[in-house]
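Hi support team,

I submitted a single chain yesterday and got back a structure, but I'm not sure I'm reading the token output correctly. Could someone confirm the output below corresponds to the sequence I sent? I've pasted both exactly as they appear in my results page.

Thanks,
R.
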Amino acid sequence: MNNNYLSVAPEVAEAIATGKPVVALESTIISHGMPYPQNVETALRVEQTIRDNGAVPATIAIIGGKLKAGLSREEIEYLGVKGQEVVKASRRDLPVLVARGADGATTVATTMIIAAMAGIKVFATGGIGGVHRGAETTMDISADLEELAQTPVMVVCAGAKSILDLGLTLEYLETKGVPVIGFGTDELPAFYTRKSGYSVDYRIDTEKELAAAFKAKLSMGLKGGMLVTNPIPECYSMDPEYINKVIDDAVKEAERLGIHGKKVTPFLLAKVAETTAGESLASNIQLVLNNAVLAARTAAYLSVR
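Hi R., thanks for writing in. Yes, this is the structure output for that exact sequence:
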């Protein structure tokens, strides 16, 4: 790779060089996941949570055509204010954005790519993309799943959003050989709720064992990442019947309006937040903070040589 495209913040570069734990963070949650100023406040709070748990945060984005691993407070504010004017960038968008010197907010897939380029092994996010409902006719499958199949980064999340077909998402990951781990749970969490009715591949109860499993995967030269699903804390979990009804209604409205592709998830999240009077947004923030804690502590064990 031409390293002229990659810009690693000095603090992050020093941590990587000296073997300190680093946790990557995505930027789509800033520009497309939440309204301003909550997006900026949450991004800074997540970074501080990672610091409080012994790791260095590296928020990832594309700014002025540069692949950035580690953003300044001013850069986070910039993305937050611009919001959905910033391109939601997946793997396919990188060449054009870089060539044009443009900005991009990184999805799970693109954050994994840039994290791997920089040498960061652990990434905390909210929820991953997956196989969309009706994908048997639309072929709408998130690039996040393909990235998990080929890029060696551990992704810590609260499961897949229940706007997706969770059963097909797990089948796809199994086909691609991606281990799906439940942290302290045998059941796949479904973002806003702790349960989905679907089983994970393995349950792991400690950060030390998570790190050991990922170290073993890397040492064996096995391609791809590892998906760690971390249930939202019980006190912030939403009622499954209620939130699933809200999501179903939002999906139907998106279909009626002809919304598809990368616009679907931001539309659905905004609609769900509106319908739940902000309750889903509050849950979203808490689950991201919860994932940041787990990712930081796991990165600390992973950095022990």
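A quick pointer for reading it: The longest strand covers residues 56-63. Let us know if anything else looks off.

Best,
Support desk
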